[in-house]
Every structure is written in C-alpha cells, then in structure tokens.
Design a protein that fits this description.
This protein is of the alpha/beta class and 396 residues long. It is built from 13 helices and twelve strands. The strands form three sheets. Strands 1-2-3-4-5-8-11-12 form an eight-stranded parallel barrel, surrounded by five helices. Strand 11, helix 12 and strand 12 form a beta-alpha-beta unit. The protein binds 2-acetamido-2-deoxy-beta-D-glucopyranose (3 copies). The site of one 2-acetamido-2-deoxy-beta-D-glucopyranose has 4 residues, from helix 5. Belongs to the glycosyl hydrolase 17 family.
Length: 396
Amino acid sequence: MAVAERLGARWPPSRFLFVVVVLLVLMADGALLRGEAMSVGINYGQIADNLPSPSRVSWLLRSMQVSKVKLYDADPHVLGAFADTGVEFVVGIGNENVSAMMDPSAARAWIQRHVQPFLPNTRITCITVGNEVFKGNDTALKANLLPAMESVYQALGALGLRGRVNVTTAHSLDIMGNSFPPSAGAFRGDVVPYMQPILGFLAMAGSPFLINCYPYFAYKADPGNVPLDYVLFRPNAGVTDASTRLTYDNMLYAQVDSVYAAIQALGHTDIDVKISETGWPSKGDPDEAGATPEYAGTYIGNLLQRIQMKQGTPMRPSVPIDVYVFALFNENMKPGPASERNYGLYYPDGTPVYNVGFRGYLPPMDDMEYSESTRKAVHLLALILILIASIALNLS
Ligand SMILES: *[C@@H]1O[C@H](CO)[C@@H](O)[C@H](O)[C@H]1NC(C)=O
Ligand SMILES: *[C@@H]1O[C@H](CO)[C@@H](O)[C@H](O)[C@H]1NC(C)=O
Ligand SMILES: *[C@@H]1O[C@H](CO)[C@@H](O)[C@H](O)[C@H]1NC(C)=O
C-alpha cells in the first residue's frame, strides 16, 4: 500500500490505475503466449470422432499453461495450429510405418514432409519411432526398430537438424521382467537382445529413454493387496528397498527407478528416463476397480504437485521427473475396456472431467476458425492501442 500511495501522490489516481491495468494485461498475455508456468507435458491423442479442432485445442492447452505436448503422429493441422506458441512437441512415427523408415530416403522424406516444414515456428524437439513395440508379437518390427531409429537419426543429420530433434521410442512397462524391489529392476529376457543395442544408440545420440507407466494397472489387477495410498501419492509409510535403503512412498517412482536399474544392469548410467505416459481413468467397466473421477483427480493432482516441486526419484533425486500425462481428452473410439476411453482430463466439449487446478478454456468457436494470424493481429493491435494511450496520458 505504501508504494501505491507514494506513486499515487506523484501520479493522478486514474493514470496509476491505468498503468496497473496495462501491466496486468501484459503479464496475463505474456504468460498465456509463452505458457511458462507448468513443466508438465500432455499426450494429445486423437482416437475419437468428436474432438475440437486443433486451433481450439491450441487455446485450451495454452490456457492450461501446458508447455509440452506429445502426439502419436505428426498431424500437420496440430503442428500448424501451434506455430509461434513456444509449445514443445514430441511427434510420432506409428508402428505401421516403422519398418519403412529403415530406408534412408524414406526417413528423409518423412522428416522433410512432417517435421521440417513446421520448424522453427513449431518447436518439434523429439521423434518417437514406434510405440510399445515390445508389447506385441511382431518379431520383424522388434528387429526393425533400431535400424529405423538409426535411419531417422542419420536423416536428421543430413538435414542439419541433429541436436535440435531427439530420436527415441516409447516402451510399455511390460518390457520389465522384474520391477521390484526397484534396485533389482531387469528387462525381460527376450527383450534384452534388442534393448542392449538400443541403449547404446540412445547414449550415443543423447536421447532419453521413454517409458509408459500406469500404477493404475497394478491396482486394477490386485485391488485387495495394492495399497491405494501408495499408488495415489497419498501419505503412507512407503516401502524400503532393502539393498539400497531407499524408501518409496509411491509406485510411480519405484517403477521409474526399476527402469534405471535395468538400464544400469546393461551398463548405462548415461541415459535419462522420462515418463512418456501416465494417467488414471475416471470411469471403467464394473470389473475395473478404482476407475473413478475422485481417484483420477487425486492421482493427477498429486502428480502435478510433485512435478511442480521438481522432485526426482529416490535413485535420481536431482533429476526432476519429466512426465507426459495421458491424456488430454477422453477418446471415444479407443478399443478395449471402458477405462481406455476415459483417461482424459477433459471431455471433448472442453469441460474438465475432474478438477485438478488446470484453468483450461476451450473457446466456443466451432465454425469460425480463429487462426494464428488473427490472434497475432489482435495482439499487435492491442499493443499499439496501449502504446498510443500511454503516450497520450504522458503528454497530458
Ligand atoms: C504409414 O502407414 C500407412 C498404413 O500402412 C500408410 O498408408 C502411410 O502411407 C504410411 N505413411 C508413411 C509416411 O510412410
Ligand atoms: C503373444 O504371444 C503369446 C504367446 O504366443 C500370447 O500369449 C500373447 O497373447 C501374444 N500377445 C499379443 C499381443 O498378441
Ligand atoms: C534430448 O534429450 C536429452 C536427454 O534427455 C535432453 O537433455 C535434451 O534436452 C533433448 N533435446 C531436445 C532438443 O529436446
């Protein structure tokens, strides 16, 4: 108050108010455009026939202050809608296209068509080659994965993009043969021959290891014995790993550390582990325990708090967890049990499924596409008006 009074004494109250309003507008606008508040990422899946247009989603994500988005493809409409927003993108090459990428010219053509045209305006920083390849039974695909990753990496180099775009793949947790206690984490025997050279590639290329982690699956499989507090990040005594003496108060961190241990067992301490998917369904079939909005909100809300605290896992306390939440929307066309269609933070109409403090806003424009150039023009006009008003007030 003292400051305001002092300023008020020198400036007429109306001008003081005006300056405050201008500052607030600039601050709010700047935060919206840069989306600098949250270091959480969101998976933007589109297996649905009722989702809003990418340009509306661009507003929603920026109003949520989300600065990282992961796609399962490289949808040009999405990448275009996020030009000049500063939002960072992971784009994906689907499993059906992995083998074709072994051909260097195909890899090069894919990048030239799906990545290069959007750079640098849209910040694409990572390409995932395949998703959960070791979950399936396609042995040709498993064998082709690394050559495809190498080919994409070479193509990035040839196009002068190496260092600006990482190349990796995302795994499901069932690559693990053992994940408890975390220090005894080990890959499945049949996965090791593929994983050993993949780790060599990731270390050489300086790319992260991506893992999709769902403590929900463990709870659903055995709700009578898996403590809900431990999977939902609620206060609990935790579990101590006897060989490291490290205590885990939640299952997600134990899963991540088991992956670090498995990687280390194959000779690598030089690879970052990032969580490319985690989430909790808000609804499920009658036999899917724990799929409620209350538990989903608790899981995501508590996870966001830990991300904001920049916590690391017990084995890597100084490396803040890096997480992409699954998923932005409920996706009505996903196959499988009901839970699969109910992982979204939002319904397709932009209303939140539960409240975890995202202040997301989906603009109600269905037909009129509010393009990026319109947004920029409005922004520029506002700045010019403010400038003119400031000058006028100073001269008066
Ligand atoms: C990816 O695979 C689909 C289905 O086989 C095919 O139609 C499409 O052309 C492929 N895309 C690229 C870029 O290779
Ligand atoms: C893979 O093969 C095993 C054994 O043949 C079978 O039990 C399993 O269901 C298969 N998995 C998939 C994803 O097809
Ligand atoms: C690539 O991944 C590494 C390891 O996680 C990270 O340090 C680096 O910032 C990433 N590069 C880009 C362009 O995001």
